[in-house]
UniProtKB/TrEMBL annotation:
It comes from the Eukaryota. The gene is EOG090X0702. Pfam families: Per1. GO terms for biological process: GPI anchor biosynthetic process. Its main location: membrane. PANTHER family: PER1-RELATED, POST-GPI ATTACHMENT TO PROTEINS FACTOR 3. The chain crosses the membrane at residues 97-118, 139-156, 168-186, 193-209, 221-244, 256-279, 285-303. Involved in the lipid remodeling steps of GPI-anchor maturation. One of its GO terms (cellular component) is Golgi membrane. One of its GO terms (molecular function) is hydrolase activity, acting on ester bonds. This is Post-GPI attachment to proteins factor 3.
Length: 320
């Protein structure tokens, strides 16, 4: 156990260090190029008017443009010197398409968003509004769509506001999944409504507090990563135990088990970081691509689970 904790700690600080500092933007070649570009192009009053309309719309400033321009000769120098591709300001170098900063991650975020929209429509067709967790599933869909919308915006243009909204959107999905799990475990238990209300208020207040500190106090990358890992682990472990308990009696639960296993597996893309293929497709983009079809599996489980709970509800009403 001690060895596992030590290994996790080492990986955590390695990731944190890679986020806070990058070799590319600290290199002398990049610095010299950037200073020259800023002096030549960004000193006049009409500096930003030289950019295209789409770049101005996406708030690409003259300084940002210089950083993008100087990044590529620096990348070529690193490659020719056999040092390898390096990150710049905590990010791999990406080819910009129509002003979009990370085209592949943007596209795959949209795919995730579309997946939730399509599957909630299917859910509404197959599940009656009177079924337990009907409203809960709609809340889940709204939170996920909101999160993937901000993921799309963030990958289009990475600025402080879009970055924070992307982080908070992802965290809201993790927190609501934990709340969903707790509510599902307590379903049909005595005082289940009171317990569900308590957990909902507690998790909601924590999210509001975390959002406030992130916006107005400090954007703590390390702490944000830690709480996402912690709540994500609780969510995966909790659903795994629930699936192990019921999969023999309820065959549809295997869909939930498969979903949980695949979610855990796809997170490996976040660990196996590598420079983007064709300057577009990196590990983070592949992670978004791998999660897109998982929405189908999860909603199919939710549909079957609502049908099962509807049957339980009718049985309890007969006994009452």
């Amino acid at each position: 156990m001690k060895e596992i904790v030590t290994a996790i700690t080492v990986v955590f600080f390695f990731i944190l260090e890679s986020v806070l500092a990058s070799t590319g933007d600290r290199s002398q070649m990049f610095y010299s190029c950037l200073q020259d570009c800023l002096a030549q192009n960004c000193s006049g009053s009409s500096q930003d008017s030289q950019s295209s309309l789409i770049l101005r719309a996406l708030q690409w400033t003259c300084s940002d443009e210089c950083k993008y321009i100087c990044m590529w000769p620096t990348v070529n120098w690193f490659v020719e010197a056999e040092i390898g591709v390096q990150q710049f300001y905590g990010k791999w170098p990406f080819v910009r398409i129509w002003g979009i900063q990370e085209p592949a991650a943007t596209l795959f975020s949209i795919l995730n968003l579309v997946g939730h929209v399509v599957m909630i429509k299917r859910f509404r067709k197959e599940v009656r509004p009177s079924a337990p967790f009907y409203q809960m599933t709609h809340y889940f869909c709204f939170i996920c769509c909101h999160a993937w919308l901000w993921s799309t915006i963030f990958h289009i243009r990475d600025v402080r506001f879009t970055e924070i909204m992307d982080y908070l959107g992802a965290f809201s999905m993790v927190l609501f999944s934990v709340y969903h799990f707790l509510s599902r475990v307590l379903a049909f238990e005595s005082r289940s409504f009171q317990y569900s209300l308590f957990f909902g208020i507690a998790i909601g207040f924590y999210f509001v507090y975390h959002s406030y500190t992130t916006f107005f106090v400090k954007m703590d990358y390390g702490y944000n990563m830690l709480i996402n890992i912690a709540f994500g682990a609780v969510n995966i472990l909790g659903w795994s135990i629930w699936c192990f308990k019921f999969y023999k009696r309820r065959p549809y639960v295997k869909q939930c088990a498969a979903f949980v296993a695949l979610v855990a597996f796809t997170t490996l893309f976040e660990v196996l970081d590598f420079p983007p293929l064709f300057w577009v497709l990196d590990a983070h983009a592949l992670w978004h691509l791998s999660t897109a079809p998982l929405a189908i599996l999860w909603y199919k489980f939710l549909i079957d689970d609502c049908h099962h709970m509807e049957g339980q509800k009718l049985d309890l009403e007969k006994l009452a």
